[in-house]
Amino acid sequence: MKRKFVKNLLFVVILNLLIKPFWILGIDVAVQNEVGDEQYGLYYHLFSFSILLNIVLDFGITNYNNRNIAQHSHMLSRYFSGIFNVKILLSLIYMAVTFIVALMVGYKGKELWLLFILGINQILSSFILYLRSNISGLHLFKTDGLLSVLDRGLMIILCSILLWSSIAGGNFQIEWFIYAQFWAYFFTAIIAFILVLNKAKHFVIKADFRLFKIILKESLPFALLVLLMSFYYRLDSVMIDLLHVDGEKEVGTYARAYRLLEAFNMLGFLFAGLLLPIFSRMIKKNQLIDKFLNTAFNLLFIPAMALCSISVIHAYDIMDLLYHENINKSSEVFIVLMISFIAIAMTYIYGTLLTANGSLKQLNFIALIGFIINFGLNFWLIPSKGAYGAAIATLITQFFVSVSQVIIVKKLFKIQFPLRLLFRYVLFVLFGIFISYITIDFFENFVMHAIVISIVFGVLALLVGLIQKAQIVALFQKSSD
């Protein structure tokens, strides 16, 4: 199982590294630089608002379906049509609820139109994720990996034409960015539907209210989890716009830093996408997960620490490389957010294991407390500190959630964390940070220093025993999975 996991992980990581960094650091950054902080801030807080009510759209079905198909692959032909039809109904409810809340908040005119298109995009994105959950649930990880980058690849083509050619005429408008997303999502959804239909062999548009009731009842705990996580992940930019006197500009500043956190989150999201069906199947077969869990954690924690160290040390250089203005404030926000990345990486491992185990009660309780902490801190800090205050709220919330999940996993699975292992992690972190800082003056180019930091953390992982040479060799041997 380790070898299978690593092989598929390498495939999807390489694939995503070819596409998504250019999308985030090339296209997305270019769009913000082109339209300015206020226009991009308008888009970003509306985008975040459209995600807040995503629970109505998905209702936890994607995670429920992924786990269910991984454990009972023969159920695909039965559930495919039913769940698809349920999602059509939920999409209509989502659009209605989104616009009712938007009108209550006070959105109007251009804001409502952009929100409408963003809502359609969320619907398409949700369908793509649902369709992909069937593919990954069947352990077709390479096909899922290709689908995971298809929408971004299409967006890169469309946005490149709009940004760097005269085909559209005039200056780039934020609306063009949203329209490009629509067409990319639309074509990806069509392709994903055809692939799943080929496996299911059966599809019919029919309202099956009995199945509708069963699916919603079983996915309700997943739905609550998605809702609470969406709130403490996405509430910050909406609250910045509503609570700060210079809301849209502060949202733009926050988006500059958060964009890179999202880029690095790609690594954790890929882990979670592979781990959920694997954990689900291992739990069903009553297989021991201790060693596999430790391997998965190390594979994510080690690069996460390297990325965090690079980002904290060279925050100003990174912001200055990407953006044209507001560098100092953006770099301050970026430092805080990247420290929280360590906690987020942990949730991609331990939170995914709890999801696969069906421990939704514990996850929902943690997420509820996390949401309360995040809302309270944002309400207190944003009026005076703006984007920086929101970043602090994110940092505290994410560490609370991740530590809580580790404690629950330890209790449920009776996993031991020997002092010797904890000591290795402490040595790894302290020596890695120390060497990173004392080597700053040896490099004029921060990119070269970043490469050295990455190598240092890799070597330290080997020296302290977090990764062993024998394990690396075994992972790539032609032995049975």
Structure description:
With 481 residues, this protein is mostly helical. It has one domain. Helix content is 85%, strand content 0%. The protein contains 18 helices and no strands. Helix 4 runs parallel beside helix 10 and helix 9 packs antiparallel against helix 15. The longest helix is centred in the middle third of the chain and has 38 residues. The protein is globular, with a radius of gyration of 22 Å. The model has no long low-confidence stretch (mean pLDDT 83).
Give average pLDDT, whole number: 83
Distance between the termini: 5 Å
Characterize the main sheet.
Answer: none
Count of alpha and pi helical runs? 18
The structure class reads: mainly alpha
What is the molecular shape? globular
Count up the domains: 1
- Low-confidence runs: none
> From the alpha-carbon coordinates, what is the Rg to the nearest angstrom?
22 Å
Strand content: under 5%
> What portion of residues is helical?
over 70%
**Helix and strand element order:** HHHHHHHHHHHHHHHHHH
Strands, total number: 0
Layout of helices and strands, plus pairs?
Layout: H1 2-35, H2 37-52, H3 54-58, H4 61-71, H5 76-105, H6 110-137, H7 141-164, H8 174-200, H9 209-243, H10 247-284, H11 290-313, H12 315-322, H13 327-356, H14 360-385, H15 387-413, H16 419-438, H17 446-463, H18 469-475
Helix pairs in contact: 1-2, 1-7, 1-10, 2-6, 2-9, 2-10, 4-6, 4-10, 5-6, 5-8, 6-7, 6-8, 7-8, 9-10, 9-14, 9-15, 10-11, 10-13, 10-15, 11-13, 11-16, 11-17, 12-13, 13-15, 14-15, 16-17
